[in-house]
């Protein structure tokens, strides 16, 4: 090596080359980063297929069940990415939970809800939408369920990619209906059940919005608008936490313990009432200690609602796991039963490994793909603080619990987003009411122009219209896609 190699111009060339390599590495990392989550998701799907293969061994229908397990895992990932994001968004948007904390809480309680209390709605998805006896053979029934799973997963995946909080329940119900019609005509659809489900789709967001608005009205009337806000919070926050604890205990007693002991509704309500009262008494000194030294203003109240919001988020995750795991494992459980026994008309028995795929897939989907929609629901529809977010989460939890108890596959997306809209529209109404009262007391000669009043709306109308449009199109889109997939599967299988 000569001394000329160390001349300044050679060193500058070397620096430029190293700089280019460094830039190339940075660009490669930047390009590769978006591919990490899909790669991990693909690994999970492959592991679900391997789990099915190992558990089933060599049988004539192993291949079909393995493919179905992959589709079910894919659907579960999309549920976690879309639906769970809608449920955890309010807590994150109110800055009561970090993104990591929300994901951890959701993963634990979603899995617990799915494994402990996820059976009833699974049966509704698998058998309640289409009449199994209308199918000619078990093979046709299996193809219909495969098409429903894949079409629902593809549609939710597309919606998540473009940032639309659609209903995974709508998607899978539409998928089952579309493949059922393609397989056996319109007579295959249980229209009585479909009408009941369709009614719940309308009722659930309205009910969620009304309950959220009612709780916000209670908080404003009894705490925020009081002269001594801190004293009022010491009285009412423990009561609100007790209500939430009572609802959770009632649901767990009625659903989660049914595998151990059969508890009727009256007994469950009594258990919930006792636990709710106990939690109310426990929270009185906790809130008193938290409120010491706080200033008498609205900002201070946010501290007191931190614990209730975190607990309500956990409650909502449990209820969502119990209700929406059906969207992934309902068709999968039906496929497993029909493939192994040839019986596709009796009630569905749900293997543990099927429930595990659903529960784990929801958690993985939330962790890998959930933050995008969490931010959208939590901060881009209306501004949320801990009090408003608590109202949304509690109303959504109560509505989902009632729906799951009734065996209705309602949309948790509709309920949660309906709660957000309910809070936002109540704020608009309350703000307009107070402004009218102020103008009556002190007339303002300068009336605000129409454009200014529109700008001051507390709910973003563009998001409202986009979300409603996405809700409307989901069922027909999933049904049409499912029908096409079913026809392709039947054609590949030779139509036998």
UniProtKB/TrEMBL annotation:
Main location: membrane
Sorted UniProt keywords: Membrane, Phosphate transport, Transmembrane, Transmembrane helix, Transport
GO molecular function, a single term: phosphate transmembrane transporter activity
Keyword tRNA-binding: no
Chain segments annotated as transmembrane: 35-56, 62-80, 92-118, 138-160, 172-192, 198-219, 231-253, 265-283, 303-322, 350-369, 389-406, 412-429, 464-489
Biological process per Gene Ontology, one example term: phosphate ion transmembrane transport
Keyword Transmembrane helix appears in the UniProt entry: yes
GO CC annotations, alphabetized: membrane
Compartment annotation: Membrane
InterPro entries: Phos_transporter
Family according to the record: Belongs to the inorganic phosphate transporter (PiT) (TC 2.A.20) family.
Protein name: Phosphate transporter
Species of the source: Roseovarius faecimaris
